[in-house]
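Hi support team,

I've been running sequence recovery on a batch of backbones for a student project. Most finish fine, but this one hangs at about 90% for roughly twenty minutes before it completes. I'm not sure whether the input is malformed or the queue is just slow. I've pasted the C-alpha cells below so you can try to reproduce it. Let me know if you need the job ID as well.

Thanks,
M.K.
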C-alpha cells in the first residue's frame, strides 16, 4: 500500500504576505507540516505542490520533494484543494507511481504531529473508512447561536432552544483544516475530499489554531509554546 503526503503551498497570500514560509517560532511554518509527515514514517513520498520557486527551495531544504511546479490554472484564487491533489496524483501516475492513500496536509498547520498522522492512518485503515480528518468540538452549543439584525439588535437563530439547558443539546464539531487522509481512488472518482464513509480524530482546543490574521498567528505561537512546555 503506497502512500503520499501532499502539502499544497502556493505563493499568493493576501491577508498574511508569504504566509506559507513566514517564520513561526524560528523556522518557516511549512517546515512543521513537512517534518511531521517525514517523522511519521507513513509515506513513500512527501511532496510540496507549489507555483513558487522560493517555497520549493525551502521545502526541499526541509526534506520534501518538489518534482514539478504547480500549473498556472491551479495556482489562482479559485483553484480548489481537490484540483491541486488531482493534478499531483495524475502527474505521478504518468511516471508510473500510483498511491493507494493520500494525505493532504496544509502548510500552515504547525500543530500536526507524527502521532496524530499515525493515529489517523490506523483509524482509516482498520475502520475501513474512505477518509479521516481532525475535528474540534464547539465550546458552546451551536443550537444557541445568535445573529445580529440590521437594526443592531440581537436574536437567536433557533429561538426554540432558548429554554433548553446547554448540557441537553447535542455536541457539534468543526473541521480543523489541518489535513485530510483518504483513499486516493475515492477522492479522484468522487471529486470530493470526504464522503459519508468518513471518520475523525478529535483534538483538544490547545492542539489547534486557525491562522488567518496576524493576531491569529501570534496566538498560535503562544498556544504552541504553551503546548510544548506542558508536554
Amino acid at each position: 500500500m503506497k502512500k503520499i503526503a501532499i502539502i499544497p503551498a502556493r505563493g499568493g497570500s493576501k491577508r498574511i504576505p508569504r504566509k506559507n514560509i513566514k517564520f513561526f517560532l524560528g523556522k518557516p511554518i511549512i517546515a512543521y507540516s513537512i517534518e511531521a509527515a517525514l517523522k511519521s514514517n507513513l509515506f513513500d513520498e512527501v511532496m510540496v505542490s507549489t507555483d513558487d520557486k522560493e517555497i520549493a527551495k525551502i521545502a526541499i531544504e526541509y526534506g520534501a520533494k518538489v518534482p514539478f511546479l504547480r500549473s498556472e490554472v491551479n495556482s489562482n484564487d479559485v483553484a480548489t484543494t481537490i484540483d491541486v491533489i488531482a493534478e499531483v496524483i495524475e502527474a505521478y501516475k504518468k511516471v508510473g507511481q500510483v498511491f493507494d492513500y493520500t494525505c493532504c496536509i496544509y502548510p500552515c498547520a504547525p500543530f500536526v504531529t507524527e502521532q496524530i498522522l499515525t493515529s489517523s492512518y490506523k483509524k482509516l485503515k482498520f475502520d475501513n473508512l474512505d477518509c479521516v480528518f481532525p475535528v474540534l468540538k464547539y465550546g458552546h452549543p451551536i443550537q444557541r447561536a445568535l445573529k445580529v439584525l440590521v437594526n443592531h439588535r440581537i436574536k437567536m437563530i433557533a429561538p426554540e432552544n432558548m429554554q433548553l439547558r446547554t448540557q441537553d443539546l447535542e455536541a457539534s464539531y468543526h473541521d480543523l483544516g489541518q489535513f485530510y487522509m483518504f483513499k486516493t481512488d475515492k477522492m479522484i472518482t468522487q471529486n470530493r475530499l470526504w464522503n459519508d464513509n468518513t471518520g475523525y480524530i478529535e483534538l483538544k482546543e490547545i492542539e489547534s489554531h486557525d491562522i488567518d490574521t496576524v493576531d491569529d498567528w501570534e496566538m498560535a505561537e503562544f498556544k504552541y509554546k504553551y503546548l510544548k512546555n506542558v508536554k
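--
Follow-up from support: It reproduced on our side and the slowdown came from queue contention, not your input. Residues 3-135+174-225 form a domain with the Spore Coat Polysaccharide Biosynthesis Protein SpsA; Chain A fold (CATH 3.90.550.10). No action needed from you.
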